[in-house]
Write a structure and sequence with these properties.
The protein is mainly beta. It has two helices and 31 strands. The strands form six sheets. Strands 3, 4, 5, 7, 9, 11, 12, 14, 15, 17 and 18 form an eleven-stranded mixed sheet that branches. Strands 2-1-6-8-10-13-16 form a seven-stranded mixed sheet, with no helix packed on it.
């Protein structure tokens, strides 16, 4: 009798472990609640709001109460700023990358799942430029390694991660992720964070758990904007602790303009990556027509892109920021026009005398 009771309790313990352990997240999702990218590259069901362009899959609409399950390696999933919305049922997953390799997921907002992403048994994938919020765990990463996860916004306080040993930043100056529950200072810059001057990256490492850490946590929300020039599209990356309403590019004036919302009682900042195809160094930054409190217009350059940083204080409802080359064509033409007028005026004045 005692042996039967012991065996029964043992079986019940196993069942409870299977039901309530986070590791059960790597079980297959219910086909009725999934949209699949199949091994052959097909989309199942075919009427799902996803468009295929070669090895890139682009969301064309928001997705509700369904998991996107990836069965194919070496592809790109572009969320196109759409939302994947769940209802945080136990062990539900927003995007399932179980046992995948060399898959990039970018520009998607994942909300309301138990796990935002599943990277179980996966390697060498890239999770970039996404926003995860209202999820019990932002990522499940059982037995995973070598995945690179950076420039994401993690808003699901306390931003828990289950398992894995992965890379949580893109190095310097790309930086890591924005963690909503992180508090730290930004007094220094550089790869070792030992150069006086802010750069939009926390001076301290962010410890995720005993096996994972973010070496370059961002001090503000990461956003991607796009600018067009002569039929080509170029990305502009912005990190800010203010809400950036819009970013626009004026090719005729060789300028980039930002609209930033909200009155501020404390210091605010913006950190930007600018392609040289749009503007070349050196830069001049004006906020509401005035110079910022602090600006580092030559924070970092890799030969094709430049990173700049500026800090400001303002009580305006909307702040207008203009960035132009320090010796832009528009300023040069304006200077030449003024100089010409002065010469004409002087000649007339001398002639009268």
């Amino acid at each position: 009798m005692t042996e039967k009771i012991t065996l029964t309790l043992f079986l019940l313990a196993i069942i409870m472990m299977l039901l309530f352990s986070p590791a059960t997240s790597f079980t297959a999702n219910d086909a009725r609640c999934s949209i699949f990218i199949r091994v052959d590259g097909s989309i199942d069901p075919s009427d799902a709001p996803i468009k295929r362009n070669g090895n890139t899959y682009i969301l064309t609409g928001d997705i509700y109460n369904k998991t996107i399950t990836i069965e194919k390696d070496n592809i790109i999933i572009d969320g196109n700023n759409h939302v994947i919305q769940g209802f945080n049922t136990p062990f539900s997953t927003g995007i399932d990358l179980t046992a995948r390799r060399h898959v990039t997921v970018k520009n998607v907002r994942v909300q309301g799942f138990y796990f935002g992403f599943s990277l179980n048994y996966s390697q060498y994938n890239v999770i970039w430029g996404n926003t995860i919020y209202l999820c019990s765990y932002i990522i499940s990463a059982v037995e995973s390694e070598g995945n690179r996860i950076y420039n994401n916004n993690f808003l699901s306080v306390p931003n828990r991660v289950y398992g894995g040993m992965n890379i949580w930043d893109g190095g310097y100056p790309d930086g890591g992720n924005f963690w909503a529950n992180m508090y730290g200072e930004d007094l220094y810059s550089g790869e070792l964070q030992n150069i006086t001057g802010s750069d939009g990256i926390c001076d301290q490492i962010y410890e995720i758990n005993e096996d994972n850490f973010d070496s370059y946590p961002l001090m503000g929300f990461f956003s991607v904007f796009k600018a067009e020039k002569q039929g080509e599209t170029y990305p502009i990356y912005v990190v800010s602790n203010s809400k950036v309403l819009s970013v626009s590019y004026d090719p005729s004036a060789s300028s980039i303009s930002l609209h930033i919302s909200g009155k501020v009682e404390t210091s605010r900042f913006c950190r930007m990556l600018i392609p040289y195809e749009l503007l070349e160094e050196p830069y001049m930054v004006l906020i509401n027509g005035q110079e910022p409190v602090y600006v580092d217009s030559g924070l970092y350059s890799n030969g094709t892109h430049s990173w700049i940083y500026f800090g400001y204080n303002s009580r305006e409802e909307v702040n207008q920021v203009h960035i132009v080359p320090e010796f832009s064509p528009a300023l040069t033409l304006c200077s030449l026009a003024i100089l010409t007028l002065l010469i004409i005026y002087r000649r007339k004045y001398v002639k009268i005398e």
